[in-house]
Amino acid sequence: MDRKRVVITGVGTISPVGSDVPTTLEALYAGRSGVGPVEHFDATGFATRIAAEVRDFDPARYMDRKDAKRADRFAQFAIAASREAVDKSRIVGSDVDPNRIGVVIGSGIGGMETFEIQHQALLEKGPSRVSPFFVPMMITDMASGLVSMQHGFKGPNFCAVSACASAANAIATSAMLIATGAADAVVTGGAEATVTPMTMAGFCSLKAMSERNDDPATASRPFDAGRDGFVLGEGAGILVLEDLEIARRRGASILGELVGFGMTGDAFHMTAPAPEGEGAARAMQAALDTAGIAAAAVGYINAHGTSTPYNDKNETHAIKTVFGAHAPRLKVSSTKSLTGHLLGASGGLEAIVSIDVLRSGKVPPTINQFERDPDCDLDYVPNHAVAADVQYSLSNSFGFGGHNVSLLFKRYQE
């Protein structure tokens, strides 16, 4: 069976640095950090008291207020970002059959805020005071369900849950649905809202987050020798993927093409990556193999780049393994230095960045590069954006449990 070509016709985001795609991208290219003191709850007593929060978010801009009260914050983010992506795609009201438009949105944790609020109600007021909306607000698939309801999309509908690889897994799976003819278009990506007491406390106990509370903007330092952990972020990144021929037929604006993906498992450890990034390397190689291109064709990698000691070192080694002599010529940046780590939503936002690099001819920086790490010796686009003519870009997402996903995008040309 011939594989259908998959293109991107719409993108949308809610992020710590912008309430839509244009403002988010402008901030990233300008190198403006979205990290600051936690405002969503009182973080006094926490080892880490900083995060990259979505500020001044009003769900009523995107949905009815009554419906908003019955949706967790992560689902509200998904709805908002999907609205932007779907509007950009102009797929609603087109001749694309809604029965063949799917929704696949990933989230690593889902309705964590709802869980914490309702658990407190249970402890303080008893079981009768737990909201009847607790379960539907908490479950991770509800972002996909609510987005489909808002737009009337009745194709394949589910969520991907693979920790920090969730959004990328959702995008890769959506591409397979289109490539094999199971759907004509899919709204996909990820959403996360985990700047909550339990999540922060858990990561603090894990010693995984930066404790640079006095200097939030420089706390996330991917690939820098002084990195001391990641910074928690939140938001959503959503894409509309579509069968190329259908997109052409209806005159859609095509932003880029998804030509390859790789999905692998480390089978190694609950939280630590496989030695020397073995699983990550296989994911990147699989993406190249799916597309049928040579490693030297890739010009940019949006790295997973979490600012943790082991991840950054192992990802660097994995890139060298796959790209060999071409690795030093690659532009590699971690936009998590600016947005923090959006966990299960990160792959959606970073896919949008990777697509824009192909269109804009610019590469966003990895900020907070102060001291070179001898184990991280690639071109991480330190501190300032650069111009680059990129034909293919790769986006990496790796998650607890050993989940690795690489997405390969190509500049679209007729």
What report would you give on this structure?
The chain has helices spanning 21-30, 65-68, 73-89, 112-125, 134-138, 142-151, 166-179, 197-205, 244-249, 278-291, 309-323, 336-339, 346-360, and strands at 6-14, 36-37, 50-51, 101-106, 157-158, 185-192, 235-243, 256-265, 298-302, 331-333, 362-363, 386-387, 392-399, 403-410. By secondary structure, the chain is an alpha/beta fold. Strands 5-4-6-7-1-8-14-13-9-10 form a ten-stranded mixed sheet, sandwiched between helices. Strands 2-3 form a two-stranded antiparallel ribbon. The chain has a two-stranded antiparallel sheet with strand order 11-12. Helix 3 crosses helix 6 (142-151). The two termini are 23 Å apart. 60% of the residues are buried. The model has no long low-confidence stretch (mean pLDDT 97).
What is the distance, rounded to the nearest whole angstrom, between the alpha carbons of the first and last residues? Answer: 23 Å
What is the number of helices? 13
Main pleated-sheet profile: 10 strands, mixed
Helix content: 25-40%
Strand order of the largest sheet: 5-4-6-7-1-8-14-13-9-10
Mean pLDDT: 97
- Which sequence of SSEs, written as H and E, runs from N to C? EHEEHHEHHHEHEHEHEHEHEHHEEEE
